[in-house]
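ok trying this again, last paste got cut off
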Amino acid sequence: MAADNRSGSVSGMTETEAKEFHGIFMTSFIIFTVIAIIAHFLVWQWRPWLPGPTGYASLIDGANYALSYLPSLKA
C-alpha cells in the first residue's frame, strides 16, 4: 500500500491540499469582504444610519411626507 502523508494532519489533508484550500479560502474571503465594504459604503451614501445635526427629525418628516401620498394611491 502507498504511504499516506495524512497521518500527522488534524484536518486529514496533505500539506499541498491544505495550502491550496487556504489559498482558495483567503481569496474568497477577501472578495466577500471587499463586496461587503462596497455595499456598506453605498448604503451609507443612500441613507446614513447615524443621525445628522437635526437628529431623526428629518427621517420622520420624510416618512410623513411619503405617508401623505397613501390615500391618493387608493383612489
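PB: full thing came through this time. Residues 15-73 form one domain.
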